[in-house]
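Assess this today:

___
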Amino acid sequence: MKKLSLFLIGVTLMLCCSAQVDSAGLDKVFDRKGTVTGNVYRVTFPRSDLKISVGDFSVAPGLALTSWVALHGMGSESMMMGDLCMLDSEEPAVVAKLVEVGLGVTAIHNHLVGEKPAIKFLHFSGSGDAVTLAGKIKQVFAVTGTPLGARGAPVAMAAPDWSAVEAVLGSKGKKSGNVLSYGFPRNEKLMESGMEMPAPMGMATGINLQMAGSKVGTTGDFVLLADEVNKVVKALESHGITVTAIHNHMLFDEPRLFMLHFWGVGEPGKIAEGLKAALDQTNSKK
């Protein structure tokens, strides 16, 4: 019955006229500027307060320690989804606050393996007025050590040479400090609770790379159909990239999607070859 109700809500929202989300109002609530793509507003909260390492590799916030919130405007309503990065010790307070403010939990799991200290990622959802939803999720962030408020200016550093990676992957990624990021949307129409979910709602395979000396560390998540999962596992593992988690992020997705997370450190070109081999096993836009 609950699934049917959510589906009907989604259908109702789809039948409404599209409306641009109130980006100015959302910027004010979050006290930082988000980005708008179509009808989706997205804002990020890097966990710059954390010092996380995997072995001897120091993980930058932009590589694997960033929370995000996305709001998709449809008519007078919006759907909110996102991913909250938290210490294991923060999890009880986060879940309790989500319940208190009336938001949903759709997944709690790891992305990395062997990181110190241990972190988890919580996926959340909500529907209603966008600004109201933003105020609720900000209350949740406030029970963690997540830096809130306006973001400081990025630290100036020499731009890494990403030419070997970009040559293999065939496109320019988004550069921020020593991190390079890619998003590869799928070709299918992806739905959640009866509403079409565009790529900025977490529906694109995300690949991040961090330059550290002559090597790169890479992590992210592949958005996969069931019959693609083991093909991607094989492609990554055969190139020395470890699969760290396979799980779901949503409850009522159609088609059913599996998110595969990974970790690898190595020479930039070789790491990129492994990522490309895995991407080639998916129905993604490259």
